[in-house]
Amino acid sequence: MSLRITETCVNCDVCEPVCPNKAITQGESIYVIDPMRCTECVGHYDEPQCVVVCPVECIDPDPSHPESNEQLLSKLLRLQQEDAR
């Protein structure tokens, strides 16, 4: 399942640099996570790094993008192939 950043985000800038898939960007008012790039750090770390560093705990699973660990790993492999081009 992709993650999402809730409205309680304080724009502290700590989540964006730790995302190995470059899925986090600054939105209009808060940071946002691109569900097409978010793999919950599967294939990189044991837990999502954005969740680990977030001081206000505003990053939750996104129920509109359910994915299994296998699907997240497959997405990571696709992203790695695309980024290699």
From TrEMBL:
Pfam families in the record: Fer4_7
PROSITE patterns, A to Z: 4FE4S_FER_1, 4FE4S_FER_2
Stored PANTHER family: PHOTOSYSTEM I IRON-SULFUR CENTER, PHOTOSYSTEM I IRON-SULFUR CENTER-RELATED
Domain of life, source organism: Bacteria
Lineage: Bacteria, Pseudomonadati, Pseudomonadota, Gammaproteobacteria, Lysobacterales
Biological source species: Noviluteimonas caseinilytica
Keywords attached to this entry: 4Fe-4S, Iron, Iron-sulfur, Metal-binding
Protein name in UniProt: Ferredoxin
Residues of the 4Fe-4S ferredoxin-type domain: 1-29, 31-64
